[in-house]
């Protein structure tokens, strides 16, 4: 019984071994056939056309984006260059402007030094100006006193105004001096003009209303309002002297000329001859 079982097992093992050997031979044969088929068939492609087109599209897109960046950088560069040129123009202009300012500042500094020097001397000048102004007013007053007595009240009031301003602290020395010069200018203009004004004069011992005719400083004449009497100031005797009727029409014409009622014309008047200066 046991022997029979051992034979059966041995037979089964032998059959298994045969079966395995046949399977290996069949597998080897199959592998050889597969190798021959593989050698005979063309190799399969590793990359498809779609993949190639996709890569090309990606490259083109990358190139486009790169060009956009390049264009943007170029535009920014142009803008920066334009800004640079503008700034350089401004810098050049500022250099010229600063050079001019330096010259002006130099002149101003020089002017300031001159003004400082003038301010230092102002006190001395002020002390010297007041005596000069007083002398000028005194001389003007003496001149009016010795001059032909036309507009006597007006001229005396002007001199009084100048004297009153001498003691005013709210009027500067410069303004006081200007006022005195203005008074001298007015007196100078009197000698260049002809005018007429109404007033009073002693005629035959009686004070009467008259019309005065002034011809510069060479003649001061009067004529009564009724034109019946005429006279002329004698600066040597310091009084008015009567004139004959031969000067009546001439004086009347002079009054009309002074009032701008007649054109300038020649008048026959008793003008004293000039004297030699002693």
Walkthrough of the structure:
The chain is of the alpha+beta class. It is built from 5 helices and 5 strands. The protein has helices spanning 2-40, 49-146, 152-166, 173-190, 248-258; strands spanning 194-203, 206-215, 219-224, 230-234, 239-243. Strands 1-2-3-4-5 form a 5-stranded antiparallel β-sheet, covered by helices on one side. The longest helix has 98 residues, at 49-146. The chain is elongated. The model is unreliable at 1-13 and 23-35 (pLDDT under 50).
Quick description:
This protein is α+β, with helices and mostly antiparallel strands.
Q: What gyration radius follows from the Cα positions, in whole Å?
A: 65 Å
Query: Which H/E pattern describes the elements?
Result: HHHHEEEEEH
Using DSSP, what is the number of strands?
A: 5
Q: Uncertain runs with pLDDT below 50, 5 residues or more? A: 1-13, 23-35
- The span between the termini is 198 Å
Helix/strand-derived category reads alpha+beta
Mean pLDDT: 81
Give the helix proportion (percent range): 55-70%
Spatial order of the strands in the main sheet? 1-2-3-4-5
Largest sheet features = 5 strands, antiparallel
Sheet-strand content, in percent, reads: 5-15%
Oligomer: single chain
Give me the number of helical elements.
Answer: 5
Basic shape: elongated
Give short descriptive properties of this protein.
278 residues, alpha+beta, 5-stranded antiparallel sheet, 5 helices, 5 strands, 65% helix, elongated, disordered N terminus
């Amino acid at each position: 019984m046991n022997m029979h079982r051992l034979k059966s097992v041995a037979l089964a093992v032998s059959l298994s071994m045969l079966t395995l050997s046949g399977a290996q031979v069949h597998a080897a044969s199959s592998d050889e056939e597969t190798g021959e088929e593989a050698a005979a068939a063309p190799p399969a492609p590793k990359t498809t056309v779609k993949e190639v087109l996709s890569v090309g599209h990606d490259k083109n897109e990358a190139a486009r984006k790169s060009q956009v960046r390049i264009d943007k950088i170029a535009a920014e560069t142009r803008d920066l260059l334009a800004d640079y040129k503008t700034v350089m123009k401004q810098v050049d202009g500022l250099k010229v402007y600063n050079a001019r300012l330096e010259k002006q500042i130099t002149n101003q500094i020089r002017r300031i030094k001159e003004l400082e020097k003038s301010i230092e001397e102002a006190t001395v000048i002020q002390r010297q100006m007041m005596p000069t102004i007083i002398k000028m007013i005194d001389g003007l007053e003496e001149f009016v006193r010795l001059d032909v007595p036309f507009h006597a009240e007006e001229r005396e009031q002007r001199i009084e105004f100048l004297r009153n301003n001498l003691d005013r602290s709210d009027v500067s020395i410069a303004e006081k001096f200007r006022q005195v010069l203005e008074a001298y200018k007015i007196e100078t203009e009197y000698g260049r003009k002809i005018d007429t004004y109404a007033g009073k004069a002693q005629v035959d011992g009686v004070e009467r209303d008259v019309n005065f005719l002034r011809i510069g400083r060479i003649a001061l004449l009067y004529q009564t309002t009724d034109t019946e009497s005429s006279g002329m100031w004698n600066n040597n005797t310091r009084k008015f002297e009567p004139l004959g009727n031969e000067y009546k029409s001439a004086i009347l014409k002079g009054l009309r000329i002074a009032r701008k009622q007649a054109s300038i014309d020649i008048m026959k008047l008793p003008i004293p001859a000039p004297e030699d200066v002693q």
